[in-house]
Every structure is written in C-alpha cells, then in structure tokens.
C-alpha cells in the first residue's frame, strides 16, 4: 500500500522551491517531508506545521538573504567573497598550498631566466641605424669540402667601395685579440691584457653601428694614423678620473696611439667585444701585408671583417654576383675557390657556420624546456586539485543547493588558483633577485632583471600568471562545478568522477615523459662530453703547459729561453712550436705536391715545430723518422690523413716525396708519417697535417712538467721569462684546460639541462608526494583492514607502488623514442660520436623509478607500519 504524505503549509513550500536549487527537492525537501509526517503523527498537524515553518526559516536564514541582496547591489561583493573563501580554503590546507606554490615558484623562476636569456639573444645588435640593410661579407671556401669563414681578404672592402655603387656605407675592421696595452707613467710601466682585443677600424664603422661618441668629433675621431677611441669603461680602467683625451697608450710596446674620442659603454646585447678602436691607416705600420689593398688576396686572416649597408632596393643576389668577379680576377688558378656571400646582420649571432655563439635551434630547445617546466608545475596543480575533490564535494553540493550557479562555482575555484599562482609568482620574483647573480656565474651569462623598470618582463610575468591560472585551474574548476548536488551531498560520487582518476594518471604520465626526456638528454650529453675528454686523442695532453713566446722574441732569444727552462728541476720536456697538436689556433694552407704547378684540392693544417715536438707530445711515427734540428724548412712530417688525401697507397710510399707550401716559400721532403691525432674538437674530422721547422712561426713553448711541483716550476719559468721580456705579460695555459675549452658551449648546455632536469624531477616529486598523501588519507581504513587480515608491510607498499611504477614505465615507453630522436639530431654536430646504447635509456628508467620510490616510500612505509587499531579508528 502506498504511503500517504501529509501536505505541509503550501506558502512556505512554494517559497522554498522558488528560492533553492531544484535538485534540493530530491534531498533536503524529502527529508523535511519525512520529518513532517512523523511530527504530524506524534504532535498533531498544528505543532508539526509550526516546526516545519521554523525548519524552513532556519534554512532561509537572514544572513544568506542579506548576502544575496548585497551581491545584487554591489557587483564587487561576489568577487570579494571569492577571495575571502579562497584565502580561507588555502590556509585551511597548508600542505596542498605549499606544494603547489613551491612547484609553481620554481618553474616561474626558470621561466624568468629563460625569457630574459632568449630575449637578450634575440635583441643582439638590433639597435643599429640600418639593421635591415646591414650585412657582413663572409667567405665560403670550396675545396674537397666546403668551409665557412666570417672573414674576407683585406682588399675586398676597398675594391668593392671603388668599383661599385651598390653600397651606401662600407667599413672594414681588423681585430687583434688578446692585446697587450701598456701605459708609461713616469718610471712605471703599467700592463694590461685586453681579451676583447684592439680593432683597426675605418671611420665609417661608426656610421653603420650605433655606438654613440661621448667626447671627440665623430668625423675626425679615426681618420689620422695612430689615433684611437676607447669606451668610457676602458678609459676609466686606464686613466681613472683623468680626462683621457690626448693621452697615449702603447700596443705591444711598439705602437703608440693618441686618444681622440670616448665612446659610450657598449651594451650587453652586441657581438662587438673590442672596446679599443684605432684608426685603420695604422694597420700599415702594424701589418703591411694585411694593409695592402693590391696584393692581399692570397689568404684570409682571422679577424678581418667587412660590413656593408646596401642602398634601399638593392638585391643581395646581385651584389653576390659582382663579388664573384673578384675570385676570377684575383684568384684565377687557386684550387681554394672563394665564394663571397652577404650575411644579414640579424643572422650573425645565430649562424654557427660563421662562428655565431648561439643557434636559434638551441633557443627553441630552451624555450620548449621552459614551457615543459611550466606544464609540469601545472600538471602538479591539476593532479592535487582533482585529488581534493572528495573533500570539496559536499561543500559544492551545499553551495549548489543554496543557489550557486555553475559559473559562480567555476569562478570561485579559478580565483583560488589565481591566488596560489600570483603568490608563487611573487615568490619567484624574490627568488630571481636573490639567485640571478649565482645563476649568471654558474651559466656564465650576463642577464640582468629589474621588475620595476622593465615593463616587458612585468607583462611576461603577468601573462604567465594568467596562463597558469587558466591552464591549471580550468579542469579542476570544471570538474568541481559540474557535480550534481544530490550525489555530492550523499557522498555517492564515483572514484572516476571524484577527481578524474584516469585524468590524473594521464597527467602523471605526461609529467614523467617530460622528466625522462630531459634525463635522457642529460645522460647523452654527459656521455658525449666524457667520450670527448677521455678518448685517446693520439697525443699526450697531461701535465703540459703552453707558455706564450714573447712578442719581441728573436730566434736567438727563444732558443736561449728554451734551454734555460729545460734546465729547471721538474721540467721533463720542452719544445718550441706554433701550437699544440690540438688547438683553436690553426694555419690553414694549400700545398703543391711533387713539383706540381697546381695546388691540391684539400686544406692542409700547418704546424711549425722543432725536433722536440714529437717527444714532448708523445706523437707516434708509423713510418720514417723525426725531423732533424734546423733553423729553416728542410724536412716535413705528415699524418695518415695527408697520405690518403694525396692518393698514396701506404705511409712508406710518402717518404721522400716533396711538398711546397705557403705559396712555395716552404719546401721540403717528407721524412716521416705520423699516426693520426685529433687536431681539433670532436665536432670536426681530422685534418691533413704538415709539421715542419718554420722558426718564424714559433709562438709557444710547450713544457711537460712534474705536476707535484707545478707551482714552483711555473714560478721559476715566469722569473726566467720576465728576465728576457720585462715589459710584457707572462701568459700560460694547461693544455688539457685548453682542449676542454672546445666544449664550452656543450658545458653550458649540460649545466642548463642538468639544472632543468633536476627541477622537473623535483616538481614531479612534489606532485607525487601530495598525491600519495591524499591516497593514503583515503585508504587508511583499507590499510588497517588489510593488516588485520594478514597483509604484510611489503604487500601494502606494493599496493601503492605498483600504480606509480606502471605509470612511469608507460611514460618511459613514450619518452624513449622522443629522447632517442632528439639526441640523434644533437649528435649530428659531432663527427666522432658516443653510441646511443640501451644503458642510457635503462639509467633514465631506473633513475625515474628510484626517485619515485624515494618520494612515496617513506609515507607508504610509515602508514603500512602503523598500528591497524589506529587506522581503523581514523575518520
């Protein structure tokens, strides 16, 4: 028989229906009617009606009505309420808030650094007068392979200026690096070594490049020989607060220059590094061959640049076409065929072929890594927010029953996300100010931040904050706002609906994909660096010091000092040479073989050295003998690559053959063939090498020493060196440090990816920690029951661990091919590569599992070891 329901007071019931959410009839109203029926039977209808009215009035208490009225009259009241409620919720769950803030703050600090780093590089030399029409003339050298140089023959600029009218402005500049600058103050000689060098510069250079002159007349600053202009910083370094105009400094103790102007300090975003500019006519005294505009086409000297500003509308292809005529006119028979090209100003900083320090592809990689870190932090937020759904579900149900719309609830949770996000950004800004000096020192960068005077950075941080708020807050807010109030209030949400468990799994997988790709990249770069540094280079690089020969050394002085150094206790071997077997210093030349009138079609690297070169560096002869001591070129040594490129069947066949190099000025017979050695970094193939006793080119002493007494030995060498060169600077460098310098860019990349990998892993661990804490809180009673029924600690630990191990393995299956492909592309820059073996990927997977186990292990073991009685009593 159907149960009858007594009708309550109609007016209150209608008002109740109108005021509240319709779904309330399925829950609250049903309970009221049941209570009303029982009261009618027990107390009678009159008293039941009275109590029913009191119950409804309590539900529709005046505070809620007044709040609604205020919201209707004050449109900002709703948003104020959002902030109050959001702040209260965040303070009420401090662990959740701190984990999210820590992850977001770390990722935002990285984002600020990456944004500033990329912006600084993209802004290099973009402030000059004609950036869109300014070009650097570069050279492609076509032999058996194509080589690229940012330098040109010194006469090219003058001929192009005189022969054609395509250019509005042309400027040549020759930079001599590591310049020795001296000041003669009364009886004191003050010495400076300027790594930026000294630039012999045509006056039109400052009409192309916008480096403002603070003192002096721009038109006359660099027109006369032996005149110079300095930057303000350099002038203060040399002369303090004294007016530098009219003062004299000396270059290499032989060339005086009078200061005629002071430049504003060079900005950080320029590739021009020299801060000492001297007049181009002075080059005639310093290097007559280089200054010769008629006979300087035979070679290209490092440091000789030519810049042009084309007239509006002049196509680069047309200019390159007329430049090719110079090759036919001045180099008609050379096998080293030049192709002169115009390189746009905006390409100079990014083109690695011509010595650009940063490839744009690397900037894109860094930007992607920064985006990954932001996404990783957002994934943490989404995971933790959706995991909190069960705790917030009844709150949502009550709000919906009291009339809150889905949009209002969505706004509430977005505001909470915004509070966390912008608090994290404020924390990140403070961390950036504190950490950036250390970051610059660690990564060898010169990035500066100033939030209050940099609107672009402020706009970026605001955009990041809004982006994170929407990206991280949208899904949790949509999930929470979409609950049905009856199911929420009765606690009948399914686990999948209660926080999107499958969604959380997907996000954890995405997070570990990012982390594992970074780990794979880090391991491959580390392996390649180790391979390059620990491989046999074909010569001995340990305990060898390269000491610079004095600039005023004669053959007699150099030989005398060599003999003096050889007698120092602890000095094992010494040789005079142009450079070490592997060096950035390189004399590329073309040779003629066996009396041929034509040059061979490959490039030869000439290394001048005396007869002690082989024993000092431990080079190995595969055929023939060593050079005999000589003060002139008589004999030559070549390597195996040279033998193969000459087309000879064996090393023995090369012995006795004659070679003419340096335009025929160096002639000799091959007396020995050396086993191949790496003459450059692992980025490049081994060159064809020629070694001979060309004393005019000796620029270094290579000294093999006993490292146990290195400090004493070096001090003694310095004393003897300064006795012969008192007005110069003593300079030395260990050979292994010099070779490590080949991989400076890789070292920076490794530091970047190591740092970002650790941060990505740390952020991921924060998320795992929060999720495991939530899961343990939800399964406390289940753990207690399992222990009562005989479950062991290892069984319970595996119950939690297997879920995450499975997700990490899935992430690895996605990350492995991505990591393999990206590292395969990166390794293409190396001619000698480390293999991409399975061990690298095994360590990436094992490392991820180990980190995850450490993150969740403590909490799980602690809970698994808890007394089950306490677990079962937990509410």
TrEMBL record:
**What is the protein name given in its UniProt record?**
ABC transporter permease
Domain MacB-like periplasmic core: from-to ranges? 97-322, 513-696
**Which Pfam families would you find in this protein's record?**
FtsX, MacB_PCD
Predominant location of this chain? membrane
- Where in this chain does the record put each ABC3 transporter permease C-terminal domain? 368-483, 756-868
Please provide, in alphabetical order, the Gene Ontology terms of the cellular component aspect for this entry: plasma membrane
The alphabetized UniProt keywords are: Cell membrane, Membrane, Transmembrane, Transmembrane helix
- Chain ranges passing through the membrane: 98-118, 363-384, 409-436, 456-486, 507-526, 756-777, 804-821, 841-861
* Superkingdom: Bacteria
**Where's it found, cell-wise?**
Cell membrane
What GO molecular function annotation could you give as one example from this UniProt entry? transmembrane transporter activity
Q: Does the keyword Transmembrane helix apply?
A: yes
Would I find Transmembrane among this entry's keywords?
yes
Instruction: Give membrane topology per the record.
Output: Multi-pass membrane protein
């Amino acid at each position: 028989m159907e149960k009858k329901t007594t009708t309550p007071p109609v007016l209150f019931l209608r008002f109740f229906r109108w005021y509240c959410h319709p779904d309330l009839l399925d829950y609250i109203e049903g309970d009221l009617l049941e209570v009303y029926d029982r009261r009618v039977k027990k107390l009678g209808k009159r008293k039941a009606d009275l109590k029913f009215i009191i119950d409804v009035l309590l539900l529709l208490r005046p505070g809620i009505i007044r709040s609604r009225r205020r919201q209707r009259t004050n449109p900002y009241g709703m948003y104020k309420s959002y902030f109050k409620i959001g702040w209260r919720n965040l303070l009420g769950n401090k662990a959740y808030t701190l984990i999210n803030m820590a992850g977001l703050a770390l990722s935002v600090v990285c984002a600020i650094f990456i944004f500033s780093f990329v912006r600084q590089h993209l802004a290099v030399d973009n402030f000059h007068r004609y950036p869109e029409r300014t070009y650097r003339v570069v050279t492609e050298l076509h032999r058996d392979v194509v080589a690229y140089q940012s330098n040109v023959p010194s006469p090219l600029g003058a001929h192009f200026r005189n022969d054609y009218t395509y250019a509005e402005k042309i400027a040549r500049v020759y930079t001599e690096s590591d310049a020795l600058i001296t000041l003669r103050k009364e009886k004191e000689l003050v010495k400076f070594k300027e790594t930026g060098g000294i630039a012999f510069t045509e006056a039109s250079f400052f009409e192309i490049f916008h480096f403002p002159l603070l003192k002096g007349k721009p038109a006359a600053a660099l027109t006369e020989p032996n005149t110079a202009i300095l930057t303000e910083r350099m002038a203060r370094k040399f002369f303090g607060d004294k007016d530098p105009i009219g003062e004299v400094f000396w270059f290499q103790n032989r060339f005086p220059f009078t200061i005629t102007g002071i430049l504003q300090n060079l900005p950080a975003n320029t590739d021009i590094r020299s801060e000492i500019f001297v007049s181009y006519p002075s080059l005639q005294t310093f290097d007559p061959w280089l200054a010769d505009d008629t006979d300087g086409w035979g070679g290209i000297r490092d440091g000789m640049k030519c810049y042009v500003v084309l007239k509006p509308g002049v196509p680069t292809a047309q200019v390159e076409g007329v430049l090719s005529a110079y090759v036919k006119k001045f180099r008609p028979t050379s096998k080293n065929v030049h192709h002169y090209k115009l390189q746009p100003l905006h390409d100079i900083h990014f083109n690695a072929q011509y010595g650009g320090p940063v490839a744009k592809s690397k900037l894109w990689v860094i930007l992607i890594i920064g985006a990954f870190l932001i996404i990783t932090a957002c994934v943490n937020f989404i995971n933790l927010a959706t995991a909190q759904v069960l705790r917030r579900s009844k709150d949502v149900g009550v709000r919906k029953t009291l009339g809150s719309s889905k949009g209002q609830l969505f706004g509430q949770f977005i505001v909470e996300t915004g509070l966390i996000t912008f608090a994290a950004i404020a924390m990140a800004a403070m961390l950036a100010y504190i950490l950036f000096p250390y970051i610059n020192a660690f990564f060898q960068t010169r990035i500066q931040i100033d939030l209050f005077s940099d609107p672009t950075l402020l706009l970026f941080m605001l955009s990041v904050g809004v982006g994170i708020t929407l990206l991280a807050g949208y899904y949790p807010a949509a999930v929470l706002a979409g609950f049905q109030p009856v199911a929420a209030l009765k606690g009948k949400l399914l686990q999948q609906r209660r926080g999107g468990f499958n969604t959380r799994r997907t996000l954890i997988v995405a997070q570990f994909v990012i982390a594992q790709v970074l780990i794979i990249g880090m391991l491959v770069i580390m392996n390649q660096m180790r391979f390059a540094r620990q491989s046999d280079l074909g010569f001995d690089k340990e305990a060898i010091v390269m000491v610079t020969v004095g600039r005023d050394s004669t053959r007699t002085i150099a030989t005398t000092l060599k003999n003096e150094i050889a007698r120092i206790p602890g000095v094992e071997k010494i040789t005079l040479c142009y450079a070490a077997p592997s060096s950035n210093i390189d004399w590329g030349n073309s040779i003629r073989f066996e009396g041929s009138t034509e040059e061979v079609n490959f490039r030869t690297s000439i290394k001048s050295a005396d007869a002690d070169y082989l024993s000092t560096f431990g080079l190995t002869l595969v055929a023939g003998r060593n050079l005999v001591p000589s003060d002139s070129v008589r004999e030559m040594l070549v390597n195996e690559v040279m033998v193969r490129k000459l087309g000879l069947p064996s090393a023995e066949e090369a012995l006795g053959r004659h070679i003419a190099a340096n335009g025929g000025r160096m002639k000799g017979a091959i007396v020995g063939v050396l086993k191949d050695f790496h003459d450059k970094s692992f980025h490049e193939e081994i060159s064809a090498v020629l070694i001979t006793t060309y004393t005019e080119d000796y620029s270094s002493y290579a000294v093999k020493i006993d490292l146990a007494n290195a400090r004493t030995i070096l001090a003694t060498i310095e004393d003897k060196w300064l006795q012969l060169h008192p007005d110069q600077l003593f300079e030395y460098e260990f050979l292994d440090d010099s070779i490590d310098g080949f991989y400076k860019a890789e070292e920076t990349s490794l530091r970047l990816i190591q740092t970002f990998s650790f941060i990505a892993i740390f952020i991921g661990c924060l998320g795992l920690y929060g999720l495991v804490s939530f899961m343990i809180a939800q399964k406390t009673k289940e753990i207690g029951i399992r222990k009562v029924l005989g479950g062991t600690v290892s069984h319970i630990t595996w119950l939690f661990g297997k879920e995450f191990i499975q997700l990490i393995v899935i992430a690895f299956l996605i990350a492995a091919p991505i990591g393999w492909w990206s590292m395969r592309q990166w390794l293409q820059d190396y001619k000698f590569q480390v293999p991409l073996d399975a061990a690298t990927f095994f360590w990436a997977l094992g490392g991820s599992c180990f980190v995850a186990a450490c993150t969740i292990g403590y909490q799980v073991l602690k809970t698994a070891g808890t007394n089950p009685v306490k677990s079962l009593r937990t509410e």
